[in-house]
């Protein structure tokens, strides 16, 4: 789904981002993080290490432990993903309308996936192999950091469906994966171990709870078992600007409780049954974003949740074929 623009809203958010990026116009402290060259023994006061012991931190989690209201956490975009799950909670991780607490990703990747151990695979039949993941709900399977095609299982089915090469399914709490029939360099039939597969591991990428005036910009969040970003409750005036949420097990973004979230210039797709999931009495505004309904509806919402697109509030009415009610909670 291509979400249309609200020009005033889009311009306002970009001005906030630009103002936050200029030290001359903001008194907020900057905390630098580099997961390759950083060290959590540093103070995070500089993007590069110096001879006097200063330099970037190594983890986002440690930056959040040091953060104060209105600070900006600036990530280095390195070849390695940031493999951690982070939580913003309470006054310390909040800001003001003029100086939001910000995480500036610079295109960095936060990845919650984990390798599938070689020893867990067992042969099923033909070119199909299987393994039992530790968490079977909302699992995703990846090859070279991209989600593989999942074949759905009809309700009541008693057999594994036909799989094409590099397709997979979840049947009876086990992942079934079909290898390519081609042989490897030593003329042996390929095995799952030849693909270095990964699957969803950590539960949530970014959790927001009881915070005010937060901005997360230019960050890629992928490979988490549940949600890429979860505004759990009481997360007010949260802006997600230029984020990419892909390959997460349940949703790319979940807005729940009484949270109020604005999604601007985002790309969200290849997630589980929901790309954007709106629950409770939450308010979500989506502008100038790409939300792909390739693995499920673009937006799923409960009746009480409000979704604003191009200035239109969708209350109890479903006015877009890509917007559907959220599924009932599991018993």
Question: Which features characterize this protein?
Answer:
331 residues; single chain; 17-stranded mixed β-sheet; disordered N terminus; 26 strands; 2 helices; five-stranded mixed β-sheet; mainly beta; 2 domains
Q: Quick one: overall form?
A: globular
Number of domains: 2
* Mean of pLDDT: 86
Q: H/E order of the elements?
A: HEHEEEEEEEEEEEEEEEEEEEEEEEEE
Assign the structural class, choosing from mainly alpha, mainly beta, alpha/beta, alpha+beta, or little secondary structure.
mainly beta
Number of strands: 26
Helix content: under 10%
Strand content: 35-45%
What's the total helix number?
2
Low-confidence stretches are 1-12, 18-25, 311-324
Describe the structure.
The protein has 331 residues and is mainly beta. The chain starts with 6 loop residues before the first helix and ends in a 6-residue tail after the last strand. It is built from 2 helices and 26 strands. It is 6% helix and 38% strand. Residues 1-12, 18-25 and 311-324 have low confidence and may be disordered. The protein is globular, with a radius of gyration of 21 Å. It has 2 domains: 7-112 and 206-317, no CATH class; 114-200, no CATH class. It has helices spanning 7-20, 60-66, and strands at residues 30-33, 72-75, 86-89, 101-111, 113-115, 122-125, 128-131, 141-143, 146-147, 149-150, 167-171, 174-178, 198-200, 204-222, 227-241, 244-246, 251-255, 260-264, 267-269, 276-278, 283-287, 290-291, 299-301, 306-309, 312-314, 323-325. It has a 17-stranded mixed β-sheet that branches. The protein has a 5-stranded mixed β-sheet with strand order 6-7-12-11-10, with no helix packed on it. It has a 4-stranded antiparallel β-sheet with strand order 5-13-8-9, with no helix packed on it.
């Amino acid at each position: 789904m291509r979400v249309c623009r609200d020009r005033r809203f889009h311009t306002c958010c970009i001005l906030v981002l630009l103002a936050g990026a200029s030290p001359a116009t903001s008194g907020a402290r900057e905390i630098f993080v580099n997961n390759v060259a950083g060290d959590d023994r540093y103070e995070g006061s500089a993007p590069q290490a110096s001879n006097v012991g200063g330099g970037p931190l190594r983890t986002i989690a440690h930056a959040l432990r040091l953060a104060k209201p209105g600070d900006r956490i600036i990530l280095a975009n390195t070849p390695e993903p940031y493999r951690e799950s982070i939580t913003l909670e309470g006054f310390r991780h909040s800001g003001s309308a003029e100086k939001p607490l910000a995480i500036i990703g610079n295109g960095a990747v936060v990845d919650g996936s984990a390798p599938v151990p070689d020893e867990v695979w067992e042969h099923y039949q033909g070119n199909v192999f299987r393994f039992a993941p530790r968490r079977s709900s909302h699992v995703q399977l990846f090859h070279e950091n991209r989600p593989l095609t999942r074949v759905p299982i009809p309700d009541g089915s008693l057999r594994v469906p036909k799989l094409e090469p590099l397709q997979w399914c979840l049947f009876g709490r086990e992942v079934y994966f079909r290898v390519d029939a081609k042989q490897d360099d030593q003329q042996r039939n390929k095995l799952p171990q030849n693909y270095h597969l990964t699957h969803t591991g950590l539960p949530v990428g970014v959790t927001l709870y009881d915070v005010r005036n937060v901005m997360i910009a230019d960050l890629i969040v992928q490979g988490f078992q549940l949600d890429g970003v979860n505004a759990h409750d009481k997360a007010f005036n949260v802006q997600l600007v230029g984020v990419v949420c892909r390959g997460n097990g349940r949703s790319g973004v979940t807005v729940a409780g009484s949270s109020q979230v604005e999604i601007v210039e985002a790309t969200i797709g290849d997630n589980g049954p929901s790309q954007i999931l709106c629950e409770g009495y939450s308010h979500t505004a989506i502008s100038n974003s790409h939300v792909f309904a390739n693995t499920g509806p673009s937006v799923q919402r409960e009746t009480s949740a409000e979704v604003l697109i191009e200035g239109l509030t969708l209350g109890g009415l479903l006015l877009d074929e890509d917007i559907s009610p959220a599924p009932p909670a599991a018993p």
